[in-house]
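[job 4471] stage=fold_predict status=RUNNING
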Amino acid sequence: MALALLIPLLGLFVWFLFAAAAWALPLFLGLSAAFAADRAGASGATSFLIGFGVLVATVVAGRTLLTLLPERGPARIAFLLLFALPAAAATASVSASLSRVVGVDEWAVVVVAIIGAVLGGFAGARVLEQPAT
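[job 4471] inference complete, writing structure tokens
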């Protein structure tokens, strides 16, 4: 019975990790701004609002700048990498950590980290190419 519940929950957890990795750069910038505001003496609610504002501004600015760049070319690739590389690093780190917890061999940890980095990179690029809702 417990195994039947564990497998869907594990799948949901892995899906959540990869979905959350797509927001690595905006989340990092938002958290950095919130912690900086807190350190400067702002209240908890104000720090949260500043961090959330920076997160939203990062995504909006990224999507706006992406529409201004040409469809193909090195500028667009470099801009997409700005969002994709932090997502790739976050996904590779989580994948490698989870595989170490499970206790697999070191070569498998490297393979899992590489696969995680590739998937995280695609997830990070996806953030900017989603249609605005």
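[job 4471] summary: Residues 74-102 form the longest helix (29 residues).
[job 4471] exit 0
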